[in-house]
Amino acid sequence: MNKFFLNLGNQPLANNFLTKFNINQVKYNLKLYFNTKTKLVSISKRVPSNQMFNNKYPYRSSMSHTMRKSFKKLALKIKKKFNPNLLLEIGSNDGVLIQNFKKKNVIGIEPCKNLAIITKKKGFDTYDKYWDFQLAKILKEKHGEVDLIYAANTLTHISNLNEVFKSITYLLSKKGVLIIEDPSLMECIKKNSYDQFYNEHIYLFSAISVSYLLKKFNLEIFDIENLDTHGGSLRYYIKMKENNKIKISKRVNKQINKEYLFGLSKFSTYNKFSKNVIKSKKELLKILEKLKKDKKTVIGYGATAKAVTIINYCNINSDLISFFVDVTPEKINRYMPGKEIKIIEYKKNILENFNYAFLGAWNFKKEILNKEKKYLNRNIKFLTHVPFPHILK
Ligand code: JHZ
Asked: Are 165 and 144 spatial neighbours (Cβ–Cβ below 8 Å)?
């Protein structure tokens, strides 16, 4: 049974950056639910995939040094540990992972045509299609079974998880490995990072909910890694149940037990989270209002999908955050979805003229603070809402 625990208000599509502000931009009510049986956390409103992931999708995974490094490291690990003949990546974005493999050993699936074109141009076999059973059939006919399937920050974006896993098991060889990686629900709750919820994130996974989900498809997790990426993610290594050659690491039960102990299986945890989110909103607004009163200039750093949830939920307008800076060409000179706050191009000395920068990309805090270290202790101070709204010392 799905139990409601939080309403994040009316939210526009988090990656719909308009060139001209439109007060009537379509919004959807973003409500969060916890399933008492499957322990899966999900959002209520399912926006059709083609409205969110199309030929104008602006998010590029390779825009941060942290992510480029993380994918490169993973590619080395995959080669060393599994050495797949054929690797399929579902949601290959701009090729940040597959570019680390030989062209003959990888296939990308990327429904956002503007992104698929980037990898196609580099010579990587990329299907600009949504992941479904029909595509799995086409791929099997053409390439045969696949040794390794990888999906980072993708499966939580697809509403029909039954079709997702049915298609994966159809294509994966009996000895094959599936690796998925997504933000960790426990980390999200611990950090009170409610901005992990937006229309694209239909689900937020935990080891508990993933292991429950996999049972139906005769799959099981054999290893788990905790990652720092995206504010705390989990990487799940998955195999067919019948494959006894691969041993199950102790890390799997350790993670599941940690989640039970933390309370991820109990509804009360989500009720508490909900209260903390309301408190976080009030405190963030209090800080921003005070800065406004003191005539301080505040900008946003990183026009993330996450920041879209925050500004719309907290009703933050340009009187509180004047504009956002971002390095992504597809976001520059556009408006933050839902608000008349412009995104301007990040330039090297841009922080010189401002007093405070709100970390929209708080998940890259280390990378950003390192990049901007010459401004720290000078004019600029950083501000974040994670794990509670505060100005960084
Ligand atoms: P970032 C997107 O979420 C959407 P977002 C998606 N649904 C998802 O699941 C996650 O990614 C994985 C900019 N930036 O990664 C680049 C700078 O300007 O937190 C990006 O626009 N300067 C697919 O949007 C944004 O911040 C910098 O120095 O929440 C980061 O977006 C750095 C480091 C980043 O994902």
From this structure: no
Query: Which residue among 185, 327, 385 has the greatest number of ligand 1 atoms within 8 angstroms of its CB, and so is best to mutate?
Result: 327
Helical H segments across 62-192, by residue range: 65-81, 113-121, 133-143, 161-171, 185-190
Smallest CA-to-CA distance from 314 within 343, 342, 338, 290 is with: 338
Closest of 359, 314, 379 to residue 369, by C-alpha: 359
- Which of 29, 12, 18, 9 lies closest to 333, judged by CA? 18
What would the pLDDT profile of 29-46 be if each residue is shown by its tens digit?
999 999 999 999 999 889
Q: Contact 251/224 with Cβ under 8 angstroms?
A: yes
Chain-centre distance of CA 37, in angstroms? 25
Closest C-alpha residue for ligand 1 atom 26: 302
The answer to whether the bond into 183 is cis (omega within 30° of 0) is: no
Tell me the C-alpha distance between 143 and 370, whole Å.
44
pLDDT digits (tens, 9 = 90+) for 61-116: 999 999 999 999 999 999 999 999 999 999 999 999 999 999 999 999 999 999 99
In angstroms, the CA 78 to CA 87 distance is: 10
Instruction: Tokens for 16, please give them.
Output: 């719909």
Residue 138 Cα to ligand 1 midpoint, Å, equals: 32
Q: Dihedral sign for Cα 325, 327, 333, 334, please.
A: negative
Q: What is the pTM of this model?
A: 0.96
Residue among 89, 343, 364, 371 whose CB has most ligand 1 atoms within 8 A, to mutate: 364
CA-proximal residue: ligand 1, atom 14 (nearest) = 302
Nearest residue to 181 via CA among 215, 226, 212: 226
Q: Whose CA is nearest to atom 10 of ligand 1?
A: 153
